[in-house]
Amino acid sequence: MELFPPIPYAGWSDTLATVHRVAQVVGRVRLLASPRRNHWWNVPFHLTGRGITTRPMGLDPTFTVDLDLLDHRLDITTVEGRRVSTGLLGRSVAQVHADVVAGLTHLGIDVDITGAKPFDLPDADRPFAADTEHASWDAAAVTRYWQVLSQVNLVLEEFAGGFSGKTSPVHHFWHTFDIAVTRFSDRVVDQPAGADPVTREAYSREVVSSGFWFGDPTYPDPAFYSYTAPEPAGLETEPLPEGASWLARGGSHLAVLPYDVARAAADPRAAVLEFFEAAYTAGATRAGWDVAGLACTNGITDPHR
Is 123 exposed, middle or buried (0-12, 13-18, 19+ CB in 10 A)? Predict the structure, then answer.
């Protein structure tokens, strides 16, 4: 298949809303059952050859939750080989949530998400158990989402190899529904006490984060992005490759390369890597990082290579 096939937001926005909430149902399980890691690295999903996974978690029993986005099925599987599966086609968020709760109980997994609600979504006050509104599941669009996610994942892995400092895994966030890799400096950021605990942990150090999201009502187009936090003065004046721009958003600025601009490039992969590198260099230089010292050509730190 082509690199970066079309996935316009308007063509699957209803399905995207459902998939996002189903992912958050599973994400709540991951949040409760995984050992805590700095910057919430334990919480996001990783990709598989058929969809996305929580990775193994828990000890009694050890289990995973996987979304198979080719067969459109949710599987809860223990290391002993016991499995509960539920279909995702034509199901509301409330039905999927009920099946997950029942499946966890059936397998003897002590994780309680009965009253869980969406995080940072317009219906954040409504429990998943009551969400019969979101039930759209366009199978072709969902599979395309996973295929695009897989391709972007590999480009982000390649970009990640160019940095020798502290860096996150490439991972898929179920709360914001983007895929990203984040580079860190060792400079501590004193977050205000009034900041929410998610923000305080995620941004306890200086970061430059690079990623991709599928669009939302405030920006209804898929796009590659990068931001620096805290944002250094003058960041938005730094040059970006042709077709990319700085977008004012929430009192700061995102470097944005629209997905369709990247798709139209002679070499889409190279265009995305050039964008990520330019945005990172802009943020890291403005923030005073040792850009040259942290560089890692082709993922190699061996001085003899």
Answer: middle
Whose tokens are 């160019």? That residue is: 162
| pLDDT tens, residue by residue, 60-93 | 899 999 999 999 999 999 999 999 999 999 999 9
Q: Rounded to whole angstroms, how far apart are CA atoms 197 and 182?
A: 19
Coil, strand or helix at 237: helix
**Coil, helix or strand for 146?**
helix
Cα–Cα distance measured from residue 25 to residue 31, given in angstroms and rounded to the nearest whole number: 10
CB 107 within 8 A of CB 81: no
What is the domain partition of the chain in residue ranges? 9-130, 152-299
pLDDT tens figures, 97-138: 999 999 999 999 999 999 999 999 999 999 999 999 999 999
Q: How far apart are the first and last CA of the chain?
A: 34
- For residue 212, count CB atoms less than 10 angstroms from its CB and return exposed for 0-12, middle for 13-18, buried for 19 or more: buried
